[in-house]
Amino acid sequence: MRIFISITAVILFGVLTADSVAQQQEPLVIRAMKDELHRNIERLSLEGVSAPFFISYTVKDVHNLQIRSTFGALTVVDTTHRRMHDVRVLVGDHAQTQEHFVGGDFSLSFDDFSQTLTLEDDYDAIRRELWLSTDRAYKNATEALEKKRAALRQQQVPEDYKDVADFANADPVVSISPPVTTPCDVTAAEDRVKRLSALFASYPQIHDSRVQFSLQDMMLYFVNSEGTVIAEPRRLAVLLAVAATQAENGEPLTDFVVHYAVVPSELPDEETLADEIHQMAAALVDRRSAPVMEDTYTGPVLFLDQAVPELFTRLYLGKEGLFASRMPIMAGPMAMMAAQMQKRNLGDKLGKRVLPKGCTIRSVPTTAEFDGRQLPGAYTIDAEGVRPSDELLLVENGRVASLLSNRTPTPHSIASTGHQCIGIGMASTNGIGPGVLDIQMQEGPDASEMKELLIEYARDEGLDYAYIVRRILPATVPELSIDDDLTTRISMFGMSGGAGAEPLGQLTRMYRVDVSDGSETLVRSVEMLKPGSSALRRLEASSDRDVWNTTIDGESPVPGFGAFISIGRSVAGVSGGVPVSIIAPKAVLIEDMEVRQEKRPITPRPPIVASPLAD
Fold first, then answer.
1. Cβ(447)–Cβ(302) under 8 Å?
2. Beta-bridge partners for 374
């Protein structure tokens, strides 16, 4: 018997100022949200402290299907329905709220994280849970505001923050989207995942592997006290294959295949996926005996395939890149760490050249398709109810033009650009993102010609070899643990790559190119440092482009907590994050990269007895 799942969300509803939406069209959950928000904005107050000037409720109603298989055997078939809610209560005023503050005790409150909401359409139960969350959020907010004001009396606010408000104004928006149904043949999906995972049985040198398919249908409901009401469907289908083994010296090795799509039918067909898995598995086995990176290399590196969008993700889609961000006010011992925790974004480079002339980077979040494919990163309204423009120019002719921002003002962005994007998946928080990122070079060679250009650059430097990178592990793809030792993963998070240096990421497929004949050899134990600004200004890129879909981490509820979310995702073995679609050149060449041997705090011992698949 074939089993089908689907989600149909009823999404026509009204809110405080949306009188045009008839009462009978309101789903019960929205009516409960609206009524409880209205009651609290009118009545919530404590004697002698600020009443809230802003309240918002977010509900994510998610239907999730997850199928996981190892070596041809199903390990997980899970269909879940969950509702999570977030309450945001702001006290003070737009100039100064309780947000952007970390107290000396570094304590966390429940309202720092999403809370569950009843799955039943029970009006009273929904209001009761929202009431308790709002009450708790308000009490915490008033206490935090007093602590923040006390901390400010003891600190000098940086000059560039003195006239920066804490919360930006935004026009109210009412956006009601139609219901969406995503059918999925579960039985067929199970069979496909089993067949794909069984391919790894042909590679007994691989210690562990997993193929998993997930489908998430989410309905986002958002209301705030300014009159905004949002009902937006978000969907994400993911096919992930990940495998792990060890070299003879115990070095952990991993590799992956991952695809994201709006609907399952737009994922690659089974034949394509099987070919990719065979290529990945063969490369992983080859790496077990591949030569170790022993010396330090400085010279040209060519990025191809998936490594190109991941390169731009690592460099520009974060708080050190094109995201507007601000460091919170810190009290007590945390204040001593503020300077060390501060990561400066490219706001200081506004108007200055960071990439070659002719390079343009744009956020085009409303672009729903590219080359006939739907883009999972596309959206028309963000998680705070702000509409983004169809195009935001971020880099023009190599110079930084603007930053992506939400409703948190910074010295470089006083208003939201509508880029607080929705996180989808386990422990996935919302965060700043481009939606769809369009990267284009004005002119350049074809991608097929870039290897010859790499060799030419290496010869000019007097080098015997150069490097090509084809895969970089995304931060949101869960790794397999070789020895199931959580300590190893926590220790790895503590590695910074050395003083003044930061690794680009885990390079899962890197090749040494012999300059004399162009032959390629896989290498391992490799660590590549992020390129400097002068190197990026001289990069070469192909003129032909493609689109890659990925996810990035949302914003951590508190500074430094994101690492633990990543560890939790790895332990649970699920992927998630803020969807991003990147239209980028197929090849990028950077003249001056530093490559060295990877430093590992712990190297687990290989298995004592060989895999039974080897017998």
1. no
2. 369
Confidence of residue 8 (pLDDT cuts 50, 70, 90): very low
Pairing label, strands 578-585, 436-441: parallel
**In Å, what is the CA distance from 556 to each residue of 207, 560, 566?**
33, 7, 10
- The region of weakest confidence among 14-28, 220-234, 352-366, 371-385 is 14-28
Length of the chain: 615
Buried b (16+ CB within 10 A) or exposed e, 74-95: eeeeeeeeebebbbbbbbbeee
| Identity of the amino acid at 480 | L
197 touches 211 (CB < 8 A): yes
Q: How many C-beta atoms lie closer than 10 Å to residue 5's C-beta?
A: 17
Could you give the CA distance from residue 608 to residue 615 in angstroms, rounded to a whole number?
15
Asked if residue 555 lies in contact with residue 423, where contact means CB atoms within 8 angstroms, the answer is no
Return d(Cα 361, Cα 430) in angstroms, integer.
23
- pLDDT at residue 172 is higher than 70: yes
Closest by CA position to 312, among listed 277, 378, 358, 359 = 359
Cβ–Cβ under 8 Å, residues 394 and 361: yes
Query: Kind and range of the H or E element at 487?
Result: helix 486-493
What distance in Å separates the CA atoms of residue 94 and residue 349, rounded to the nearest whole number? 27
226-258, pLDDT tens digit by residue? 999 998 999 999 999 999 999 988 999 999 999
Determine the longest span between alpha carbons in the chain, in angstroms: 80
Which of the 8 DSSP states describes residue 17? T
- Measuring CA to CA, which residue among 532, 354, 541 is closest to residue 443? 541
Phi, psi of 64, deg, nearest 5: -125, 135
Q: Where are the beta strands (DSSP E) in 336-414?
A: 359-363, 369-370, 373-374, 392-396, 399-400
pLDDT greater than 50 at residue 73: yes
